[in-house]
C-alpha cells in the first residue's frame, strides 16, 4: 500500500453531506428522473436591488483593489453599528474581522486556538461542518446529544458534564441548523452560570440565522444576557442568510482583539482580504433598508406553516415547530423497521432518505449527518409549490411501506 500524500488531518474529514446529497439529486436529474430537491440551505430570493447597486457602484468608483485584511473601514463600521443596534453589543473596529463567509470565520477561529487533542463541545444536532472543522485542526469534537424532548437544546447539566480540562470551545448555534432551536435569555443565563465555573472555556456563537425567526421574538444574544463572557466569546455572523447573499461570501467574527489579531495574521498569510466588491454590498445590506428581511421571513413562515402541516399529516412522521432558520428536522422513528415495496427494511434514517430519493424523487438529508437520528432535514428555502409536491410524494412513498 502506498502512503497517502494527503495529510492525516485532512484524511480524517469528509465532504459536506448536504453537498453529497445535492450532487446525488443532480445526478438523478441528469439521468432524466424528476427530482424535488429539498436539500439546499440557501435563500431562493435574489439579493435586494439596493445591495446589488452598491456593489456595481463600488466597481465603477474603482473599489477593486486589495482592502485591509480585516475588512474595509466602511464595512467594519457597519458591523459595529449593527452589533450595537440589533444586539446591544459594543465593539471597536479592531475587535472585528471580515471573512469569506461565516464558515471561514469559524474555521479560522478554531485554527488559531486549537492544539492537537483540544476539545470542542458541539451540541447535536449540529451544522454538518463543525465536527469536520475541528478534526481538520487536529482537535476532538465532543458532540452532546440534545434530544427533541429538550427542544434540541443543551442543558446546563449536559454542559457541565461535557467540560474537561481540555475543553477549548463551546459552539452555540441559535437559531440552529438543522432544527431551528433557539435559546431563550433564561436558558443562556443558566448556561452562563456553568461557564462562570470554567473560565478556560471559550464560546463561539454562530448567529447566522438570528433574523430568520417565526415566533415574533428577537433572538437574544448570549453576550447581552451574560456580558461577563465577553472576553472569551467570539460572535460569528454574516450576510448570507439574512440578505440572500450566499454567493457574495461575507461573514465576520467579533471578539477580543487578541483572537481577532491572530485570525488577521493567519488569514493575511493564507487567504488575503475578502472581495472588495462584496464588502461594499455587505455594508449596503447592513446600513440600508431592512424591508427585505421582514418580507422574506414572512414568506419563509408561510412555507414553514404549510409544510409542517403536510408533514405532520403523514403517518410515521412528526416535526416540532421550528422557531427559526429555514429547515424542518423531521422525526422518522415511525418508519424505522418498515419494509419498502422492493422488500428492503428501513433500518436507519439514511435508509429512509435513500428510499425517498430513489422511489419518490425527493432529496433530503439524513439525520446522521447532523449527529441525531432518526431524523431527516428538509429545507423550506424553496417555492411553496415545490414543497407541496415534495410532501405529496413523501406521503405516497410512505403509504407504500409495510
Ligand atoms: N453556520 C451555519 C449554521 C450555517 O448553516 C451556514 C450555512 N450553511 C454557515 C454557518 C455558513 O454561512 P456562510 O455562507 O456565511 O459561510
From TrEMBL:
Gene3D superfamilies named in the record: Aspartate Aminotransferase, domain 1, Type I PLP-dependent aspartate aminotransferase-like (Major domain)
Record InterPro entries: Aminotransferase_I/II_large, AspAT/PAT-like, NHTrfase_class1_PyrdxlP-BS, PyrdxlP-dep_Trfase, PyrdxlP-dep_Trfase_major, PyrdxlP-dep_Trfase_small
Keyword Amino-acid biosynthesis: no
Enzyme class: transferase
Molecular function terms from GO: L-aspartate:2-oxoglutarate aminotransferase activity
Domain of life: Bacteria
Residues of the Aminotransferase class I/classII large domain: 34-394
Cofactors that this protein relies on: pyridoxal 5'-phosphate
Region described as Disordered: spans on this chain: 1-25
EC number: 2.6.1.-
Protein keywords: Aminotransferase, Pyridoxal phosphate, Transferase
Family the UniProt entry places it in: Belongs to the class-I pyridoxal-phosphate-dependent aminotransferase family.
Designated name of the protein: Aminotransferase
Amino acid at each position: 500500500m502506498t502512503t497517502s500524500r494527503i495529510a492525516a488531518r485532512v484524511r480524517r474529514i469528509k465532504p459536506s453531506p448536504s453537498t453529497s446529497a445535492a450532487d446525488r439529486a443532480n445526478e438523478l436529474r441528469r439521468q432524466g428522473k424528476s427530482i424535488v430537491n429539498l436539500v439546499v440551505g440557501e435563500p431562493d430570493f435574489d439579493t435586494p436591488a439596493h445591495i446589488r447597486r452598491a456593489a456595481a457602484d463600488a466597481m465603477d468608483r474603482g473599489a477593486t483593489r486589495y482592502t485591509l485584511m480585516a475588512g474595509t473601514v466602511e464595512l467594519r463600521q457597519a458591523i459595529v453599528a449593527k452589533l450595537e443596534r440589533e444586539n446591544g453589543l459594543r465593539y471597536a473596529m479592531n475587535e472585528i474581522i471580515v471573512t469569506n463567509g461565516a464558515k471561514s470565520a469559524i474555521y479560522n477561529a478554531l485554527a488559531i486556538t486549537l492544539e492537537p487533542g483540544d476539545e470542542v463541545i458541539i451540541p447535536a444536532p449540529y451544522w454538518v461542518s463543525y465536527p469536520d472543522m475541528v478534526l481538520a485542526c487536529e482537535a476532538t469534537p465532543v458532540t452532546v446529544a440534545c434530544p427533541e424532548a429538550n427542544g434540541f437544546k443543551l442543558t446546563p447539566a449536559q454542559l457541565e458534564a461535557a467540560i474537561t480540562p481540555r475543553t477549548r470551545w463551546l459552539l452555540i448555534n441559535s437559531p440552529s441548523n438543522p432544527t431551528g432551536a433557539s435559546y431563550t435569555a433564561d436558558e443562556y443565563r443558566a448556561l452562563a452560570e456553568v461557564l462562570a465555573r470554567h473560565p478556560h472555556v471559550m464560546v463561539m456563537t454562530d448567529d447566522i440565522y438570528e433574523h430568520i425567526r417565526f415566533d415574533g421574538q428577537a433572538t437574544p444574544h448570549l453576550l447581552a444576557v451574560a456580558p461577563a463572557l465577553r472576553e472569551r466569546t467570539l460572535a460569528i455572523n454574516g450576510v448570507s442568510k439574512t440578505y440572500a447573499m450566499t454567493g457574495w461570501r461575507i461573514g465576520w467574527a467579533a471578539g477580543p482583539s487578541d483572537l481577532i489579531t491572530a485570525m488577521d495574521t493567519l488569514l493575511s498569510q493564507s487567504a488575503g482580504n475578502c472581495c472588495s466588491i462584496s464588502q461594499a454590498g455587505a455594508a449596503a445590506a447592513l446600513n440600508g433598508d431592512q424591508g427585505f428581511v421582514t418580507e422574506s421571513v414572512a414568506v419563509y413562515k408561510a412555507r414553514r406553516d404549510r409544510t409542517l402541516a403536510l408533514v405532520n399529516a403523514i403517518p410515521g412522521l412528526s416535526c416540532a415547530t421550528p422557531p427559526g432558520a429555514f429547515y424542518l428536522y423531521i422525526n422518522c422513528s415511525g418508519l424505522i423497521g418498515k419494509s419498502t415495496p422492493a422488500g428492503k427494511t428501513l433500518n436507519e434514517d439514511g435508509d429512509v432518505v435513500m428510499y425517498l430519493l430513489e422511489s419518490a424523487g425527493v432529496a433530503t438529508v439524513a439525520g446522521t449527518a447532523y449527529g441525531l437520528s432518526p431524523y431527516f432535514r428538509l429545507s423550506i428555502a424553496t417555492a411553496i409549490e415545490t414543497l407541496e409536491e415534495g410532501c405529496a410524494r413523501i406521503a405516497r412513498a410512505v403509504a407504500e411501506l409495510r
